[in-house]
Amino acid sequence: MRRSSSLQAALSPAKTASSTVTATPVAEEVVQEQVHKLVVRHTPLQIFVCDEESHFYSQVLEKLLLRNCRDTRARIIEFGAGDGTPVINALLRGASGGCNFGDSMVHGYELNPKAAAVATRNAADMGVAHQYKVHNSCFFKGAATTDATWLIANPPYIPAEDDNILMPALHGGEDGANLTRDLMTLGFENMVLLLSAYSNPVETIEHARRQGYRVTDFMVTPLPFGYYSSEPKVRKWIEGMKEEGKAYFSRNTYLLAGALLQLPARMDEDDNDDVAPSTPPPAGNIVPTPLRIRRASREEGYKGRRPAVPCSAIADDLTDELIAVMTALK
């Protein structure tokens, strides 16, 4: 029963957020005007381009990162900044919605020099350079010395037998999840990651569980196969993975999830906070639909109160529920 209701929510357009939206219409118009100023001057073969996916990633960061990170001096590290628009848009929308990011700082790492330059310019143009710094250097070297407690990423998840594809940097290994699993072994207290249903999602989520992580919140959206995943070589490989039970999709649609994964110590710290977190507003009137927002929509969870069941039990349930949703399309 739960699986069918969750899948229905995932595939249905989100309802218009009216009175529950905290930002004023004027503020929203200002944000839209600012976002539209982010002019893209590159081709899909130079820098990753997928407006739908970037917009969803931005929503995920706003809902799962900005509204759950209570430390106003948090240090956040990003794997693969791209052109920077997802983080920049999340910062702009978070500010307009009353999210206090304070003196927190996002350090993005991007190996593509053109992408790093575009991201740096975009951050400066949008007035968020004091909160978002992009480094044209190796993420793993930066991660080895960082004091960040949050990791965010839309990691490469294109599966293929080798990286001889349209954009080699998007190759995520034979099952598309090698880099994602590598990120899960770094030990960050909190991670916000995008996970694809055609990139061996079950093994990837179970790998996170073996590392001690629990899915404490997630959002999911249906997406069409795009420019990179529709390359004949790639699509044929994904079809083969489906036969092996490692890829889940229906015709030309797959599910993309944004998941908040936390280590139990951090989860307990959140639940022992003296101030109960407020329920964030719904996603709005666009397709990406949040299925869970910090347990507020669970019947047995809190509704302005403390959780009625232990945090670990809730987290385990969300982990299993994410697996159920990600494998629902056949």
Automatic annotation (TrEMBL):
Gene3D superfamilies attached to this UniProt entry: Vaccinia Virus protein VP39 (3.40.50.150)
BP GO terms, sorted: methylation
Region called Disordered, residue ranges: 268-288
GO molecular function annotations of the record: methyltransferase activity; nucleic acid binding
Name by which UniProt lists this protein: Methyltransferase small domain-containing protein
